[in-house]
Specification:
8-stranded parallel beta barrel
Amino acid sequence: MLTLGPNDILLGRHADSWQTALDSAAEALVDAGLVEAEYRDGLHAREAQSSTFLGNAIAIPHGTPESRQYVKQTGVRVLQFPHGIKWHDGQQVHVLVTIAAQNDEHLDILRQLTHVLDREGVAEQLANATSAADVARLLSKPALEPRLDADTLCVNFPARDLQELALAAAARLRQSGCVDNSFISAVAAAQPTWLGKGLWLASSAQGVNLPALGVATPAEQSLESAGHPVHALFCLAAHGDAHRPLLEQLMAVLENSESQSLVGKTSAQLLATLAGETASTQTRRVRVLNPHGLHARPAKQLVQIARAQAMPIQARLEEGSATPVSAASLTKVIGLGARRGQWLVLSAEGEQASAALEAVAEAVESGLGEKVTPFDGGIDSTPQASSAQPDIEPLTADTPHSGVAASPGLAIAPVFVIRPLQFDYAEHASDPEHEISRLNSALKEGAAQLETLVHNAPGGEVADILSMHEEMLDDPELHHAATDAIREGRSAEAGWWEAIETAAHAQEMLADRLLAERAADLRDVGRRVLGVLCDVTLPEPPDHPYILVMDDIGPSDVARLDTSRVRGLLTVRGGATAHSAILARALGIPAVVGAGQAVMALNNASMMILDGERGRVTSQPSEARLQRAEQQLLDLQQREADAWESRFGVAQTRDGHRVEVAANLGNTAHAADAVERGAEAVGLLRTEFLFMAHASAPDLTTQIGEYRQAIEALDGRPLVARTLDVGGDKPLPYWPVPQEDNPFLGLRGIRLALTQPDVLETQLRALLMAGKDSPLRIMLPMVKDIAEFRAVKAIYDRLLQEIPTSQRATDIQLGVMIEIPSSALLAPSLAAEVDFFSVGTNDLTQCTLAIDRGHPELSAQADGLHPAVLRLIQMTVAAAHTQGKWVGVCGELASDATAIPVLVGLGVDELSVSARQIPLVKARLREFDFADAQASAQLALSQATSDEVRDALEAR
């Protein structure tokens, strides 16, 4: 909310030009301690994009997203220029509302100012104001705006009489925060008034917080009271004159509607009627796709297009207010507050209405001058689990095609392509109870299928993930969201898929890529139920060995695999940390993911070579290439057998240089399996699993028990536990985080943990106590510099003093992950105080190269062997060894056969990999001398690109 104090308003300013005025505004923000001096450049850069003139002599300068780094604190400074300034778009400006915004607060301030733009004489009053109080009064938002929207409706309520219907409507107003309990008591004490045409009115001014109109319709059209039909009851929360617009809408309904038609309507249909949309009104639904919604720039575009039409265009939010606004009014359009993903309902009447609405809808879908990405469709369409793809160019025969290396190994077999399933269903249904019954039956069938798959799952990791799917399927929030949509008129299929997509989109916004990619699991669960509802089944695979090709592979797909026949996995989408990749590694199946749409054009039974080590596939290979690959495969199989036999040997190079090989774990239950595979330690325990499994932060006892399970399984081997590493929009349901433009570079990792030091302290205490009598290493994620380490170290040191040595670990180290370039560049200052480093090459690579490893087009370029990444690792090792500290690598690069000699040659002391890779990594170490590794490292550092590095190492 825009609140202005006397110190926020600066009167009597003068400027010779708009640039000078903008400089004065920047200076005011700096003087107030809101921004750093560099924010001035952001203000000017924003004006260069388009004018921030709002109207009525007001401009709202604010910085670009890039300049937000210079914002210390969100705030506003208002500068008055009595003589005015000619703004760069030719407008006369008397007031600058200058905003320092860390996120998108300027959009809310803009919406709060729109009311000023409709009032005549405001510009002159602002110019002549002689006190800060006068300016604040003119800019402040007027008090109460009447409310009538989806949250004030109660449709198809099974009321037994009129009074029960009135109380249901009043209860909706209370739930919406418009009234308190005294309003409900007043409604209960009075008899509703008969308005005619089956319509009734209950009203009171008692206990009203906000003027509002509740509307309740009965489930049965036969309901009567005092001999009159009851088709709808209006419940008015009156407040002075502020509720008058609601009365006007009510009068329009009385004049234009057949009341019996209101019975049985969904909330959306009822809102349309209340909005004045009649049989002669044509409408179009279109989704707002702009990243920041309809703020000033796209709103201006919309208004211009609406004004160019031959008749008036109205607009409203489908689930917002029932009061439509003129699409030709900038202030009204901005005032809608439409955000990305919300549906606009455009309406018009007349012969040209259809074409006019189409023109406006297409403009909205195209982004109104901004670059946008789809959000489950723009213009109204039936949601489907997948849609038909345009023609795709097939892969060139006998030519390697790059994807993302997801699971090492070589596969040679014909392909079996499973194309995205089509789920055809109606979006709407007229019998909610029948649809809910269908959904419940499908959920039970889906649960039974999952139970069978868990029982038959090929491997512990697959079973664990499928068990998580069972929990997802039993999530009451998903059930409630789906049934609510069904009661609003959606079919069982549409309601379920809408609930799945909403939850999946929220998951995708998480800062941690590992957690964000769990959206694929939600959709996997969703498709299972959708398949039951639509009676859609997967095609039967061939009875001979094959390479499976899919858009993406979910855990339930893996659980259905006959691992004796599946030689490899190839997917269109996904990154190296997607579940398809994790499961492929867990099962030892070579896999390449993120290979792009071209792989879906492959013909079934065509031969393929899949190299999971390099992330390459070759379709229809030549006879010579095929023979080479077959010999390579025989060599690899023998190598794997030999590696397994010697898995318990000490991890060292051929000449005895020691390099510890440890396991990366996502769950403490897998520690024993890691030891059985030859792990000499756990180099990375992701503790997020424990926090994700609880509805609130796990307590001390729970955490001690979980960590102790891994420590006991390790039987004296070291455990490196990473503290909680989540972040983003909604990282955990009990730990809300403000929305961020780029959550991957926002409040996450140790930054987030330090916002709630009590949670961090509990975790540190639990680790220390669980580690009693065992070697324990605690690792902090996403540390950018020494200040963040010291903040945690202060808590850590205090706990060491508080917990008696007899009750905690004594063989203990505190280190940091090197996963952002700043920590590598500052490694000398960190090394002086930390006990060890662990290089997270996954994040370090994508931060250094500015490439998201999950990007469908760029992910193959996110190679940890890029010389820029290797130089950062070199700097880290040098700094650590100077101080006598050790360095590990816990990213995917640590198990890359080509990269292992390079990392050892750079001086890395520990390689932490997935448990299944441990025997192979140990075997790879025994294939070279330390001097060879050092030569490989120097060769790699001398190259200019990652491709050149790999080519040079291959030729060596």
